[in-house]
Structure formats: structure tokens, C-alpha cells
Design a protein that fits this description.
By secondary structure, the chain is mainly β. It has strands spanning 11-22, 30-35, 42-53, 60-64, 74-76. The protein is globular and about 35 Å long. The model has no long low-confidence stretch (mean pLDDT 88).
């Protein structure tokens, strides 16, 4: 839906830092979603020192329209229903 109906909301200058823990198995193998409807409305979003794993040990996050080099997670295009 995000790609079909991009939002005009601008999100920028966000830092996620020093997260640790284990997620539930509900969205496994994903630990997070970093998704933006368009790369033109999201910028300067960083995730550093992210030490979060799923119960099966993965460190994957759904990443859409993000600078993956700025995210301290293993990005994947696999989507598993994050709302």
C-alpha cells in the first residue's frame, strides 16, 4: 500500500541507538521494519548499536526506501505483516 499511495509526510533526522534484546516469534525472522513510502520523503535515518535478534537468532529487518548502509541490521525485502 505504501508504494501505491505514497505519503507526503516527511520523516528525517531519526536515530535509533543502543537497542538490545530478543523479539517474539510472531514476525520471525524479522526483528524490525524500516519502511518509507518513498525515498524522497525519508532521509537521514540511522540505526546504530542494534543488538536485537529473533528467537531463531536472525538479525533481519524489512527495509523499504531506506539507506541500508545507515542501518545496523541485515536488510531484507521480505515483508511479514508489520503494521
Amino acid at each position: 500500500m505504501c508504494q501505491q499511495f505514497p505519503s507526503p509526510l516527511t520523516i528525517e533526522d531519526i536515530v535509533f541507538r543502543n537497542f538490545t534484546g530478543k523479539t517474539s516469534s510472531h514476525y520471525q525472522p524479522l526483528i524490525a521494519a524500516f519502511a518509507c513510502s518513498s525515498s524522497s520523503v525519508c532521509g537521514n535515518i540511522h540505526a546504530t548499536d542494534i543488538d536485537v535478534v529473533s528467537p531463531n537468532g536472525t538479525h533481519q529487518a524489512y527495509c523499504l526506501n531506506q539507506d541500508q548502509a545507515a542501518l545496523d541490521v541485515e536488510c531484507t525485502d521480505l515483508y511479514k505483516g508489520f503494521n
